[in-house]
Amino acid sequence: MNKQGTSETVISIGSTTSLLKRDWLPIVIVIAAALIALVFVGSPSIWLTLTLAGLAMGMMVFIVASGLTLVFGLMDVLNFGHGAFVTVGAYLAYAVLTMMTGLTVADNLVLNVLALIAVVIVAAVGAGFLGWIFERIIVRRVYGDHLKQILITMGGMIVIEQVVMMIWGSQEQLIQLPTSLRGAFVMGDAVVEKYRLLVVVFGSVLFLAMYFSLSHTRIGLLIRAGVEDAEMIQALGYRIRRLFVGLFVVGSGLAGFGGVMWVFYRGTLTADIGGELMILAFIVIIMGGLGSITGCFISAILVSVVANYVAFLVPEMAMTSTIILLVAVISWRPRGLFPLTKR
Amino acid sequence: MISSLLSEDLPRSRIVAFTLILLLMAMLAAPVAIGGLTIMSVFVKIAIFVVLVGSFDLLLGYTGMISFAHTMYFGIGAYGTGIALKSMGASWEAIAIGFLAGAFLSFVIAVAVGLFSMRTKTIFFAMITLAVANAFAVLVNQFYTITGGHDGLIFQIPRVLKPAFVIIPRDVFGVPINGTTLSYYAILLICGLLFLLMLRIVNSPFGRVLQAIRENELRAEALGFNVLRHRVVVSCIAAVLACVAGALNALWLRFVGPEVTLDLQVMLDVLLIVVIGGMGTLYGAIIGAGVFVFAETYLQGAIAYIAPMIAEVPVVSVVIHPDRWVFWLGILFVVSVYYFPEGIVGRLRNRAAELANIKK
Fold first, then answer.
1. Residue ranges per structural domain of chain A
2. Is the pLDDT of residue B55 over 90?
3. Per residue in B128-177, pLDDT tens?
4. Higher confidence at residue B279 or residue A19?
5. In angstroms, what separates the C-alpha of B79 from chain A's closest C-alpha?
6. How close, in Å, is residue B61 to chain A by CA atoms?
7. For residue range B190-214, what is the model confidence (pLDDT) as tens digits?
8. What is the mean pLDDT of residues A121-148?
9. CATH architecture of A43-332
10. Any idea what DSSP says for residue A169?
11. Scanning every residue of chain A, which has its alpha carbon at the shortest distance from the alpha carbon of B340?
12. Chain A contact present for B36, CB below 8 A
């Protein structure tokens, strides 16, 4: 379709040389969407609250989707069971949090943040380990067969969710944030929830870390090259399989991390908590362009912010608006906002 | 005659053929020989699942695409009929209008989703159908004034189809022959005809092209077949068939709600039945649906019966528990995709073919 435009973006994202050459249009669209929403919402304070909530949601979707898009881009493996790692991360957070009430009940920001970081580490490591097993038992045997991949990873997800129910029960559990992270502070007449701000910080830091490790490290170089042409990387003598397993484990760990963020955001947890986020993650991957971290980040924010504005203006249309947005973006750029691959 | 009815696509395995005949006879005889709503409900569920699963197999087994929106079309058929019967009263016109509106909506959505998602990359079809189905389920929940939301809708059906409409009183056969019996046979007949229609479709030149696309998309394209158009057309056919199954389901249950139509659980049941029965064999839909519905009805009961006896044993009592039904389905699903991808019918057919070879 627009071959000219897309090949240009491949170059500009592929190299980090010139900032001017970069494709700024999608970012402009996010800002434009926010400004248009300001006109419709009317009140700037409500708009600020909505935007922050949307940003926080976008960060969580990004955290979950980032691993998935790299795995998909690199090895063409589509993991429909990714949501299971979100669930496992969320439940691990719940388990760890109930064990260290001392740190979370204390009204001390440092202790609380330390507790949260400990929770995140446990959840990410646990989900990553599970991802490693999942790759070995479930995914390894179905490389190259999309149909079986979708079926088998879906089946794996059901089994994991059921095991979670066996361990923690199927009834809804309540989970509370560490004391000093609860509540909000008021800026002007806008209410800014502390936790949302924290999620935005976490997500942005993760994005920057991923962006720089992809563009400035050797592993990152290999991953980017692998996303573009896996066979060539193998021909040059790199073991792409090992790279892939590593990426799969990291992706699962990130899903666990996302699960922690998501469960505190919701406040309640059930075994299907991962499923809700997965649908958004899929949309974001398609919209962002396979294997593109920047695309994933921008489209996660775009989707969540727009869904949030629409949910405020016309509550019934929130999910539908997301799909309309996807259709619009894909009609404009059929291979996503920042396409990396030629596939 | 039978051969041409089945579009010359015979079961090709004696065990399959025998089981099918047995099942068909049991279905036809059940209301008179056994009687009672339980057994009729089991068979109606099998018949409806045959259409739902068979139409899904047109996509998965014959064309090689996974749609997660299939139960959405099932739901559209059910809700269309249900809403019309609720708002217009129990009349045949309501059924017709509700069903046609549902079928039209299914068709439109199938065209839109198909054209949009397959224009980019085929694998996106699975993800986009999942998202669309989810959006639809959310919409149904939000417009609860029309759809009944979480609780669903209970509605009346025309009097002829209700148990109060007595055709032959109880004292003739020992079981009453009434409107319920009538709707039982009507549903069986419609489902049977739709099954023959699906056999016809997959054995037509159009169906052969679908299988060619499944085997090698590029080659099919190179041979001059429009892959995109075939995929969109088959997803429309599947959608409308699922819609019919949904309408029949609504008429039988006199109820429509998210749990029996739109839930992801229903989609997983459908996937499991296709895989167990055998992808790419429509007979697999019958065998799979039969096995699944019987297991669901009787095995689940058996587990509930055993559960209290083993309540003391530590790990076993957690694993063998009525609530863990889905866990076993998941295990069964994963194992069958690995070790049993051809399904029951595929396996039996292969064996029959081997035996025939040895005889030669």
1. 43-332
2. yes
3. 999 999 999 989 988 888 888 888 999 988 888 888 888 888 777 777 88
4. B279
5. 18
6. 10
7. 999 999 999 999 999 999 999 999 9
8. 90
9. Orthogonal Bundle (1.10)
10. -
11. A148
12. no
Give residues with Cβ within 8 angstroms of B336, minimum separation 6: B272, B275, B276, B343
Q: How far is B147 from chain A (nearest CA, A)?
A: 14
Q: What is the mean pLDDT of residues A211-230?
A: 86
Q: Does B109 touch chain A (CB under 8 A)?
A: no
Residue A252, min C-alpha distance to chain B (Å): 19
Q: Cβ atoms within 10 A of the Cβ of B277, count?
A: 29
- Is the Cβ pair B64, A80 closer than 8 Å? no
Residue B325, burial from CB neighbour count under 10 angstroms (0-12, 13-18, 19+): middle
- Please indicate if any CB of chain A lies within 8 Å of the CB of B144: no
Report the alpha-carbon distance of residue A76 to residue A81 in Å, rounded: 15
Give all domains of chain B, ordered by start, each with its CATH number: 2-359 (1.10.3470)
Measured between beta carbons, which residues in chain B are less than 8 angstroms from residue A282? 127-128, 130-131
b/e map B168-183, b = 16+ CB within 10 Å: eeeeeeebbbbbbbbb
The two structure tokens encoding residue B292: 């699944």
Chain A residue nearest residue B331, CA to CA: A159
Q: Which of B114, B135, B137, B111 is nearest to B124 (CA)?
A: B114
Encode pLDDT of A140-194 as tens digits: 888 878 888 888 998 999 999 999 998 888 888 888 888 777 878 887 777 888 8
Chain B, residues 316-335, CB within 8 A of chain A, namely 318-319, 323-324, 326-327, 329-331, 333-334
Name residue, tokens 């089981």.
B19
Q: Do B66 and A151 touch (CB under 8 A)?
A: yes
